[in-house]
Q: What sequence folds into this?
């Protein structure tokens, strides 16, 4: 077993664009669930809206990169409004069911063969990232073992993560953020102070949703393709695992949670594949090793929720639930 | 809850070496094992005799898959994605004297809808002409099929609703309880047990899973006073873990239960497959029995009392924990039965078949009103019929679940307590 390779590929996951996308999306969930107590189970839907909004506006309407970005963000904000109007007055579990249903509706719509010319149905869309890489300021060459494209997407992805973290941090220590936390603790108390709880919740839903849409774009740009199968309900649940790993009501929690999630996934994959290749483990094939990792994710999610719901960095007093 | 994890770990370690040998893969063609999706069918002449060694090709983009029909006439082509494929039957490889029936498109375009297996039927012989169904006929057939689908959904959603009513838990692992029923029947059947015994054991297994979940996980969590939202997230973790444990042993391919292929029969004006008819009858009987138990027996009264107000029920001498235990066992068995029927309805068994209809189950429960048993029944039937009828009214087959989910959201907008729910239940 080549431990050097296993460790280096795990370390590579630490700053991969996918990790950045998970960190952004989990940060959006932190705004929803950690700070506002909104149980959004449809973050995968927001990511899909972002990714498809960008890809379709680039491919079908041939708009420049930043217009496509703007369209994706506006689409996700509209999606949040549509979701919020019927559900934000209801109990938490209704919001959960409606958001997960809405995310699945988005996935069914981009998968259907009726819209193949626009969405590419199950095969998805590709070749929309040209404008993005055309803006690459880094000349060809070697950057820490990466080519200039890989380096560029990492710089942009993690730059975006840092900017969003700072924004969320500033927001949450502003009076606006304090009201939001108040809503999480006791909605009626905040309402009795004359605040419009519904409108605050809606704003939080939109902000977290926009973060999800940005994450969707960071997720799809390095792949150069967007496929509906990537945006199933599992994605949302993995994001919740990231969020709970790091800590609910924190800014850095989701980021570190996403890093831990991907490093551990990569490590277990490396070790399991190594054991299988060396013949030490014979009761497992490589496909099953992949499934074993997701069994562990599920068990980790349960254990975290039961024994350390505040996550690594969280504060038990900041939990969105008693 | 430690017991459950220990059990999962022990299962993984002990059963794994045997799993390769124990998991049969009765796949007619080697290509189907490499991909998770497949296009398949049976070739039979007009005298019902199987046609062997006929070549069939499926094409999409640069992908081309070929298969030869086996001795029993079956063929399977594994395909990488669920998209649209052009399927062509090579007429030169047909046996002497056999021809495709008039009006049979060849090659033809076929499209996946939701399931990972797609059946393509080629009709042979002179006498067979593909009939164009008129709208009314189609509507009636879909209505009956939808009723059958709705009732099997109801089996699962009544259990979910009972669990929600008595414990307040929105159980995201209910889909896996549905899958388990079908997978267990497949596993026991593969061990060459008689069919009826396989079904019985699968139902028992479902009940046992419900019992183990409650005893190992949910009861200790209730004791700790864990909130409803954390419990919901725990159930998601459980759903992920169980789904991939099932995939670990079962694999990603679609398998068929015995007697899954059946020709439609004509009853009066309705044509329905015998499997759907059985499914309909079984669901009606089971739900009727359940209704009688809930309304007439002491146990049923106790269950409704716990659902209404657990503290008050405990104070009036009802053993709340034992009622909840019985509810979990019943819920597990009902979900298993629903899963078996769902495997015949689709048809096919896959590791994610339960999570595919989880949202429809939720839709049924919320439509009727969270926590009310009759609401869950009513809501599920509406969902089932709605899903089937939308295809009659021109919605594409791969969008048929969207309608049901959309209706759920709209109903929540105007009547959040559901159709039969009481307003006070919505906080």
A:
């Amino acid at each position: 077993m080549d431990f050097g390779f296993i460790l280096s590929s795990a370390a590579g996951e630490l700053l991969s664009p996918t990790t950045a996308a998970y960190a952004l999306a989990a940060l959006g969930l932190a705004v929803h669930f950690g700070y506002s107590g909104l149980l959004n189970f449809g973050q995968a839907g927001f990511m899909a809206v972002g990714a498809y909004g960008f890809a379709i506006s680039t491919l079908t309407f041939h708009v420049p990169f930043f217009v496509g970005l703007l369209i994706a963000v506006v689409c996700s904000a509209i999606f949040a409004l549509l979701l919020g109007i019927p559900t934000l007055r209801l109990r938490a579990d209704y919001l959960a069911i409606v958001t997960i249903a809405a995310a699945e509706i988005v996935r069914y719509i981009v998968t259907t063969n009726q819209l193949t010319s626009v969405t590419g149905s199950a095969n998805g869309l590709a070749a929309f990232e040209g404008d993005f890489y055309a803006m690459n300021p880094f000349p060809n060459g070697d950057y820490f073992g990466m080519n200039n494209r890989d380096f560029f997407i990492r710089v942009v992805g993690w730059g975006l993560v840092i900017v969003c973290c700072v924004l969320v941090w500033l927001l949450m220590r502003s009076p606006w953020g304090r009201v939001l936390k108040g809503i999480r603790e006791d909605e009626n108390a905040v309402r009795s102070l004359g605040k419009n709880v519904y409108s605050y919740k809606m704003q939080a839903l939109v902000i977290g949703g926009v973060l999800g849409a940005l994450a969707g774009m960071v997720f799809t740009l390095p792949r150069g393709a967007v496929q509906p199968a990537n945006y199933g309900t599992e994605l949302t649940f993995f994001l919740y695992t990231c969020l709970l790993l790091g800590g609910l009501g924190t800014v850095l929690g989701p980021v570190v949670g996403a890093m831990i999630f991907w490093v551990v996934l990569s490590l277990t994959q490396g070790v399991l594949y190594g054991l299988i290749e060396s013949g030490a483990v014979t009761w497992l094939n490589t496909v099953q090793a992949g499934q074993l990792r997701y069994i562990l994710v599920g068990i980790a999610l349960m254990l975290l929720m039961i024994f350390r719901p505040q996550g690594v960095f969280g504060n038990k007093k900041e939990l969105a639930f008693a | 809850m430690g017991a459950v994890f220990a059990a999962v770990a022990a299962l993984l370690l002990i059963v794994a070496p045997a799993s390769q040998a124990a998991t049969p893969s009765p796949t007619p063609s080697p290509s189907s094992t490499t991909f998770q999706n497949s296009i398949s069918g049976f070739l039979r002449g007009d005298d019902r005799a199987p046609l062997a060694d006929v070549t069939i090709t499926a094409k999409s983009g640069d992908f081309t898959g070929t298969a030869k029909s086996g001795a029993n006439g079956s063929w399977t082509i594994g395909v990488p994605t669920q998209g649209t494929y052009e399927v062509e039957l090579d007429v030169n490889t047909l046996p002497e004297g056999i021809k495709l029936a008039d009006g049979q498109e060849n090659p033809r375009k076929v499209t996946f809808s939701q399931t990972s297996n797609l059946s393509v039927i080629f009709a042979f012989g002179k006498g067979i002409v593909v009939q164009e169904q008129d709208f009314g006929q189609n509507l009636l057939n879909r209505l009956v099929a939808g009723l059958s689908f709705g009732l099997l959904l109801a089996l699962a959603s009544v259990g979910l609703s009972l669990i929600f009513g008595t414990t307040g838990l929105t159980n995201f692992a209910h889909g896996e309880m549905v899958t388990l029923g079908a997978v267990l029947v497949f596993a026991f059947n593969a061990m060459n047990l008689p069919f009826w015994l396989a079904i019985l054991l699968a139902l028992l297994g479902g009940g046992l899973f419900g019992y183990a979940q409650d005893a190992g996980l949910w009861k200790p969590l209730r004791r700790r006073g864990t909130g409803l939202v954390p419990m919901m997230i725990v159930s998601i973790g459980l759903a992920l873990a169980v789904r991939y444990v099932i995939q670990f042993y079962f694999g990603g391919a679609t398998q068929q239960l015995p007697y899954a292929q059946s020709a439609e029969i004509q009853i009066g004006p309705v044509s329905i497959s015998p499997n759907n008819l059985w499914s309909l009858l079984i669901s009606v009987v089971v739900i009727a029995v359940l209704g009688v138990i809930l309304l007439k027996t002491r146990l049923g009264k106790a269950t409704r009392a716990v659902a209404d107000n657990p503290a008050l029920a405990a104070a009036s001498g009802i053993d709340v924990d034992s009622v909840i235990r019985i509810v979990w066992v019943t819920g597990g068995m009902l979900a298993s039965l629903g899963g078996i029927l769902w495997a015949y309805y689709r048809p096919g068994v896959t590791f994610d078949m339960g999570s595919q209809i989880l949202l429809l189950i939720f839709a049924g429960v919320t439509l009727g009103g969270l926590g009310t048993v009759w609401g869950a029944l009513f809501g599920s039937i509406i969902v089932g019929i709605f899903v089937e009828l939308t295809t009659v009214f021109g919605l594409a087959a791969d969008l048929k679940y969207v309608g049901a989910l959309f209706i759920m959201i709209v109903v929540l907008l105007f009547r959040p307590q559901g159709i039969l729910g009481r307003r006070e239940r919505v906080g």
About this structure: The first helix of chain A runs from residue 3 to 14. The mean pLDDT of chain A is 90. Strands of chain A lie at 125-126, 225-226.
